[in-house]
Amino acid sequence: MNADQFNNTDPIYRRFMERQLQDALELEHSSDLLRIHIPPMAPPHVVAEFHCTGLVREGSGEIKEASEFHVGIWFPADYLRRADPFEMLRMFTPNVWHPNISREHPLICIGRLTPGTTLVDILYQIFDILTFQKYNPREDDSLNKTACAWAREHHDRFPVDRRPLKRRPLDLEVQPL
Amino acid sequence: MTPTKTHHIVVAGAGGNTGSHLLPHLARMTGVTRLTLVDPDSYEQSNLPVQNIESQDVGRAKVEAQADKLRRINPALEVIALQQRVEDVPRGLLACDLMLSCLDSKVSRQHLNETAFRLSTPWFDCGVLGSQNLVRVNGYVPAQDSPCLECGWGHDEYATLEQEYLCGAGARTYPTMASSALGALAASLMAIEVAKFLRDEPAAPLAGRQLVLDAEHHIVQVTALRRNPWCRFDHRSWMVEPWNCRPESITVAQALAQLGSLRVEGHRFVAQLICPGCSRSIEGLRLNRPLPRCPECNRRMVTAGFGALERLDSTSANGSSQLTLAQIGLLPGDIVSCGTRHRRIVEAA
Fold first, then answer.
1. Residue B330 in contact with partner chain A when CB distance is under 8 A
2. Candidate from B165, B304, B308 with C-beta closest to A105
3. Statement to judge: residues B146 and B35 lie in one domain
4. What is the CATH number of domain A3-157?
């Protein structure tokens, strides 16, 4: 990752972003469920492709499992000092069925986001949401109230994907007989 | 020695537990000729026991009630009342000789710190902790290697910055539980430091220090603050030039032709606002200040990721280039940055 790619002269921000991308690529390398894309206008724009099981609602109203989700993450120049969780994230995959994801708009809510939260932590939070390991059960502050009511009735089905985001190393050391 | 210069002081959080006690002291000080009061709130019944107000002030804007009181104390004093969050006030309107913070919000303090360093203006910050009878006054004087508010911040401070979001608790400012007496004590300490500043400027005695008074155990503590080389704030100061223009007359295209690009630090340009509560959306390029509320359900409207612009240029303004600066939310007093230059919008006479 080249420091000149960042349109920000603040050395602390540049160093932070270099580290974030490096750590995210390491996570991608050790994950079967994650791919990281850096679009042309980036960094600090990143698109994460999750190959995990999540839910979508089709036009017919049927709620089905899906296996590919794209989420955009933007790191503004002042991200180490202030953060707006809505402004930073964009749900590119349409019709995702989740209380924390809007159906009408590309909004995703991961809750409180501390300025300077690492990209890897954000990826884990998004993954937890997509797989229903984490969801907001309160309708009044949900992005999809219908999905929220549905989720309360079907909580026994969650999480919809139990695989870990990071591949667990297999300890196959064989003891000699 | 009495001050000979005239001074303009900005007080943010002017109507609260400390601010309401501080203002009368400032109005009586020789050398203070202009006060700008900033506070977005109005007085409520619950403020009566802990703030320096009277029952007829309940229901009034804090800055208006305080401004009237100050004019009665000192009719010669020029008082400017801004009923806004300090984050929403155009930075140029905060240009002064000294900024004082009686704020109860970390986000607002952070913004004032940033403004003070950008404009190379000293600022004092005070705080109270009612449960422990603690009072604190900090002094920050922008200079090379001088500390700022954020130099003392770690992860925990950033983690507790107020934030408004769905899917959990929203923005929250915790009450200080401070009595009127404790607020008055903080105000008196602050006022004494202001008087010393007016007398001794530029060698402000509180520069880079924190004074803590523990009224519970009768202890006074003074701590020297240091510049943190890893501070997340860049401490840069600006050379601000005047930019004579009328925001309601000049178009975005004309402004971009003059400046190349437009940026208002601390804010973003957005093309679509969405209500996360009822999904209503509003289209149109604008500066996201003040944080708009949904006309239907009063939730804070937001922008989806990749929809906000830190800088407006001819490419990103495409389709909105014939709107005026006023139509996209710029105001007289705003400081517009383009590259390394900073221009304050000054309305031509």
1. no
2. B304
3. yes
4. 3.10.110.10
